[in-house]
Amino acid sequence: MELSLKKPIVFFDLETTGLNTSVDRIIDISLLKINPNGSEEIKSYRLNPEIPISPEATAIHGITTNDVETCPIFKHVAKELARFIEGCDLAGYNILKFDVPMLAEEFLRAGVDIDLKKHRLIDAQVIFMKKEQRTLSAAYKFYCNKEHVGAHTALDDTLATYEVLKGQLDRYEDLENNMEKLSEYSTFADNADFAGRLIYNAEGNLIVNFGKYKGLLLYQVFRKDPSYYNWVQNGDFPLYTKKIFTEAYIKFKSSEQA
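Below the sequence we write its predicted structure tokens.
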């Protein structure tokens, strides 16, 4: 089944120096844009992360620190990437927990003002986990009846995910071929930030989702513990999480002074 698109959708996959979105960096990114008229565009970048690639990461994707030392850094391609995905839905495999948070951190470090939360996000892994509970290679075999021989290369994973999503639409009659519905189905929780440190309650208010204040309204925590905001800003939290805290804190201080 071909995708029913009202706007372009970009499938993408990352390879990185490690799994910590706060400190690790992107070393390989591939993007496949599907336009509503069916035309396709592909972009791939090999990047110098400016930090060593962990042996554990190299063991997975095969990319070493020496392989990327002459490549451009993310900052040099950030604006081009932002333009490529502007106005598009975003899709991939495990992008909600990893790829989107990692990409958001890189954009913030590069000083590029793009809010990935404004894009509809479709995660084929979430659909797969809700339907079958497997991995990308198993999903590719299950939905496409093919062996995923290029696993853990960004381009092959990106292309495989595109085929998997189309296969999922073919298999499940209750899965609507609508990007807004697929985005809703791909989401487990209403996170305010990608890391899930803050979530929205039914009334749309921010709730702390970790630590000793878990479950409390954020504005109540700000009022109860005036040092909390500074603790978050000085802590080892993703930049995007700190950004959301800052926006909330500014609104809180304005309301207190009103």
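The first strand starts at residue 9 and ends at 16.
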